[in-house]
Give the backbone structure.
Amino acid sequence: MVLKAEIHCHIEGAASPDLVVKQAQKYGADVSGFIRDGAFVWDDFTSFLAAYDQSADLFRDEGDYARLAETYLSSLARDGAIYSEFFTSPDHAERAGLSAAAYTAGLAEGMRRARAKTGIESRMIVTGVRHFGVESVEKAARFAARCGEPLVTGFGMAGEERFGDPEDYVRAFEIAREAGLGITVHAGEFGGWESVQSALDHFRPTRIGHGVRAIENPDLVSRIADEGVVLECCPGSNVALRVFESFENHPFPKLRAAGCKVTLNSDDPPYFWTTLKHEYEIAREHFGMDDKALTSVTRTAIEAAYVDKKTKASLLARLDGAKR
Ligand code: ADE
Ligand code: ZN
């Protein structure tokens, strides 16, 4: 089995409908508005975000988040993943009545349990939600910078990328950068190439969440390749959300051929009927990638990971060992 690594997944978006239904039973909540026949119900980005928010609202204490992280990471490990970096959202926890600190501690507990059981290594990227506003994104950055949880190694911004003025969010990224956190930002998913360029200019990330709409501007593609910015590509998510109408139209192969560093990720797997394993299968089937090419994608993800040098070296050694 090809070893895998994931660096773009929203932990709230990784909760399966089954797990969300169990949470709803625990809290006596009704899920019929966003889960039907065992699947999440949505039909565009706005209704997807609404379903996502309602599901997140059913994770309310440390134990809920420990179970969520442990369940997700264990499933990744079963599918051959050796590393996972997932996005956290203190805003969602606070909306559900839990402090950012307790939320992060719960997730960290789940990560430790998953590692003890399966060996999977993992880290957290705290995110602000762009459409929740500048103040809340800065608050998330301050939390990330000061929380003291060693498993928090990055900061990012998700949500509606067309919302707000990029300049207003610069401070949040500076707070995180000064604290030594890795920087990534969602851009070039529902915004066009200008959104990617603006994100690079304003936030100076080493990685871009999605970034695939950069394909609309060849100069920008060259810049991404030259600067070694890593693209956290999520083809299954893009096709489900109709950013591209089919895998045949997805720019992953072109970006890769142009020398961009590309990775494969599941984003919010059960919402998009995918898993990390399925993303690797999509790349095999639609992008013509073999084991060697897929392993090089895993290598790119590990090289781009926001993890200490020693852990990175041991993950790369594991990858090299598996190739022989
Ligand atoms: N939050 C969760 N999933 C997202 C996505 N695909 N784009 C932007 N924000 C998100
Ligand atoms: Zn995402």
